[in-house]
């Protein structure tokens, strides 16, 4: 399964890129870039019309951007945009509300593998991409053990042998959306307790507190446009 393999490898590299000693990112970055364009209109470049059968990623026209000081200024601007992002700035269902019916395996929950790499995947982390109200996700299948050195970007994760069979048993490992949640009335709908759960597991800001003027922490209010409610699950 090349799609799952590319995703598992990209997940592992995204984890490695967060390590203090990392200075680059490997993996299928075209996939990551296209995902950003699909979900976040603020960062989209120009797009070409194309036939429905053409790869979606091929429609985006990536601009040639200069480096140096201008690149650093653009990075600071992107960070500011992310910190100011609201739920209305996100396209929650870029592939339609019923995309999971065409690709049932998109609701698979469990580890996905590439060679000796296995990374956890759970669609309940972002139910809004399926047109359902976001709930607090279930506990994920976790590795048996892991080794993460104090410095450097590499790490090793050990899974129990039985997880190798999960990918081949999609029927038993498929998330039941109607049992887990209910369809959204508004694309960004969440349960009230989700905000508190989310903020205990995520950095509320991307910009470092020492960069520029300190900014007030966003106030997240249920059934109002939520300031900075962003969960990255591909």
TrEMBL record:
A GO biological process held by the record: meristem maintenance
InterPro entries cross-referenced by the UniProt entry: AminoTfrase-like_pln_mobile, MAIN-like
Residue intervals of the Aminotransferase-like plant mobile domain: 1-198
PANTHER family associated with the record: PROTEIN MAIN-LIKE 2, PROTEIN MAINTENANCE OF MERISTEMS-LIKE
Protein name (record): Aminotransferase-like plant mobile domain-containing protein
Classification of source organism: Eukaryota, Viridiplantae, Streptophyta, Embryophyta, Tracheophyta
């Amino acid at each position: 399964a090349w799609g799952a393999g590319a995703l598992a490898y990209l997940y592992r590299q995204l984890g490695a890129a967060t390590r203090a000693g990392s200075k680059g990112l490997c993996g299928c970055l075209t996939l990551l870039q296209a995902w950003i364009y699909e979900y976040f209109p603020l960062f989209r470049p120009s797009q070409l019309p194309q036939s429905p059968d053409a790869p979606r990623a091929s429609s985006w026209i990536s601009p040639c951007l200069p480096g140096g000081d201008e690149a650093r200024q653009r990075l600071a601007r992107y960070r500011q945009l992310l910190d100011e992002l609201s739920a209305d700035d996100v396209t929650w269902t870029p592939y339609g509300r019923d995309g999971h019916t065409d690709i049932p395996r998109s609701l698979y929950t469990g580890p996905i593998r590439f060679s000796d790499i296995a990374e956890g995947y759970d669609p309940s982390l972002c139910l809004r991409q399926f047109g359902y109200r976001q709930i607090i996700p279930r506990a994920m299948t976790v590795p048996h053990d892991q080794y993460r050195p104090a410095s450097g970007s590499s790490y090793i994760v050990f899974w129990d042998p039985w997880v190798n069979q999960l990918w081949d048993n999609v029927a038993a490992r498929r998330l039941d959306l109607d049992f887990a949640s209910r369809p959204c009335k508004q694309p960004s709908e969440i349960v009230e307790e989700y905000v508190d759960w989310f903020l205990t597991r995520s950095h509320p800001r991307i910009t470092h507190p020492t960069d520029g003027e300190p900014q007030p922490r966003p106030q997240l209010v249920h059934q109002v446009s939520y300031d900075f409610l962003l969960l990255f699950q591909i």
